Structures are given as C-alpha cells and as structure tokens.
Amino acid sequence: MPEKTNLTVNGVTLQLSNLTKLYYPAAGFTKTQVIDYYIRVAPYLLPHLHNRPLTLKRYPQGASSPFFYQKECPAHRPAWLRTAPVWSEKNRRHVNFCLVEDLPSLVWAVNLAALELHTSLSLASAIAVPTTLVFDLDPGPPAGILDCCQVALWLQDIFTSYHLQSFPKTSGSKGLQIYVPLNSPVSYSQTKRFANTLAHLLETRYPLAVISNMRKNLRTGKVFVDWSQNDSHKTTVCVYSLRAREQPTVSTPLTWQEIESAWQTKAKDRLTFTAPQVLERLQQYGDLFAPLLTLQQSLPAV
Questions:
Q1: 167-170 and 68-70 as β-strands: parallel, antiparallel, unpaired?
Q2: Which positions fall inside the DNA ligase D polymerase domain (predicted)?
Q3: Rounded to whole angstroms, how far apart are CA atoms 281 and 63?
Q4: Are 84 and 155 in contact (CB under 8 A)?
Q5: Residues 163-190: what's their mean pLDDT?
Q6: Which candidate, 68, 83, 23, places its Cα nearest to that of 249?
Q7: Which of 19, 64, 166, 196 gives 159 a disulfide partner, CB atoms 3.0 to 4.6 angstroms apart?
Q8: In degrees to the nearest 10, what's the CA dihedral of 87, 89, 91, 92?
Q9: Using CA atoms, how far apart are residues 289 and 262, in angstroms rounded to an integer?
Q10: What burial letters (b/e) apply to 219-246, b meaning 16+ CB within 10 Å?
Q11: 285 contacts: CB under 8 Å, gap ≥ 6
Q12: Position 4 pLDDT exceeds 70
C-alpha cells in the first residue's frame, strides 16, 4: 500500500499518510489497520462521541513512542469539522475542542495518529452538566485487574442499594471503569462529592484492598478508586477507543456476569480485548454501553 492515498468517506475526500507505519510493532499492527478498526467500529463509537468535546492523545511514531494530548483542535483542521468552545480556568480563555461526530471526522482524527480518544463527561451543549458518573479503578502493583473486579462488585452492590444501574468496561490498560448514567439535571460538584463519598466508604470497609487517596505511594497492593475524574476539566478514555499498549487493546464494555466470572475463576485473560476481538464482541453483544446514551437516573443524596 502506498504511504499516501486519498480516501473518500461519505462524500468527503481525505488524504491519509504513513499508512504502512507500524503503530503496534509487537503485534505487527499498522496505521492502516488502526484506521480500518476505527472505520469498522464507527457505528458503535460515534454515538458516544457525538456532541462531546474530544481530547486527542496523539502518538506520531506509534504506541510505544512519545505522545502528546491535544485539546485545542488543530488550526489546520478541515473547514467542515465542528468545534466546541469550552472555558478553561487554567488558560483563562476558551479552548476549541474538536467534535468528532461523523465518519469523515473520525478518520481525519485517527490519521493524525490519535490512537486514543478521550471525551468529556458532558455534552458540548451543556458543558456544566455531566451525563454520567464514573469510577476509575486503578490497581497498584502487585494488585491487578482481578482485584479491580472485586472492588467493582463491591461498587455494584452499593449502586444496587440505591437502585442505580451501572455499566463496567475495561480501561484497555490495566484497570476497570464503572459508569453510572444519569442524563438528568446534576452538577459536577454533586457527582464529585457522591463519588468521593463512595470511594471513602469502600476504603473504610475494605482498608486492605481499597485506597481513595490520590497519592501514588499509598497505592501499593491496593485498588485506587479514582473519584476525581468527575470534574468538568477532565476527560476519560472513550468506550471503543484503542489504547497505546504493546498490543492494540481497546477500552471494552463488559457484562457484570463477565466481571463476576473473572473474579471467581481468577481468569484475568478474559478481561483483555484487542481491536479484532472487540469487533467480534460487537457482533455477539451489540453495544453494551448503549444505555449510557439515554438511561435517566437521579443521583441519590448521600
């Protein structure tokens, strides 16, 4: 395949480059295969990107090389690409985030070596209102993803007691993320306080297994329940996004039955999915994260 080619996507012609570059050398996974994955997963991914300010995590030389985060949408973007201005207290100005809402926009972004796609918990049209609550479960070695499963199940018990539905996914890296869709009037101060309270509750109940303090030197052998992601200036890796690991792993939705089974059988290999495996799972399960788009739940008082 040539290093450069033009690809017409839904009537829009895009120039793609460096197509033979190995983005995942250990897997022999090229930029062409990265673009192909995102095109194939687009019907499931795009609804989760729609109207959400997007941070691009770019790896120009591949997944094992230096990267940078790009919040400000590139000045050389196509004229047809929509952006969303979001006020930044740190920069004291509006940051114009890319809105990747259709297939041409997605292919354009991926061609910039944006292996990872990180989204806001808010819609651009209501930036102060998070649509979901998220808990990022990050294991501190020697703890691993199976320890995250145990903590996830404890969290699920709490959610069930509040009559809240929750949805787990792999981070695509070393941990798990648990989402509680809200899609109801709520503020970040409320969701952050709620998440902080639950993280402290878990730490109190299971002090040998859980830590809620953000200091990394306290995490050894425990699962850090990161409640701080519930913030207007933070982003979380989007469902179905690739991750920059040795293999082309993907942040993948799971069923609670899979979490329970992995914990009971200690089968951590069941919780890692590469791009081809995710496409197969979508044929089997469909979009397990679809309820996050519409399910309305109220945040309970704590």
A1: unpaired
A2: 30-289
A3: 23
A4: no
A5: 97
A6: 23
A7: 166
A8: 70
A9: 20
A10: beebbbbbbebbbbebbbbbbbbbbbbe
A11: 253, 255
A12: yes
Q: How far is CA 57 from CA 72, 141, 216, in A?
A: 12, 25, 23
At 178 the three-state DSSP class reads strand
Tokens of 137: 């479960």
What the block records as the tokens of 146 is 């199976």
Torsion sign over Cα 97, 166, 196, 183: positive
- Tell me, yes or no, if the pTM score tops 0.85: yes
Q: What distance lies between CA 207 and its chain's CA centroid?
A: 27
Task: Give me the mean pLDDT over the 52-76 stretch.
Answer: 96
* SS3 (DSSP) at 196: helix
DSSP state, 25? G
d(CA 194, CA 302) in angstroms, rounded, equals 7
Q: Does 1 have pLDDT greater than 60?
A: no
Amino acid at position 196, single letter = N
Average pLDDT estimate for 103-132: 97
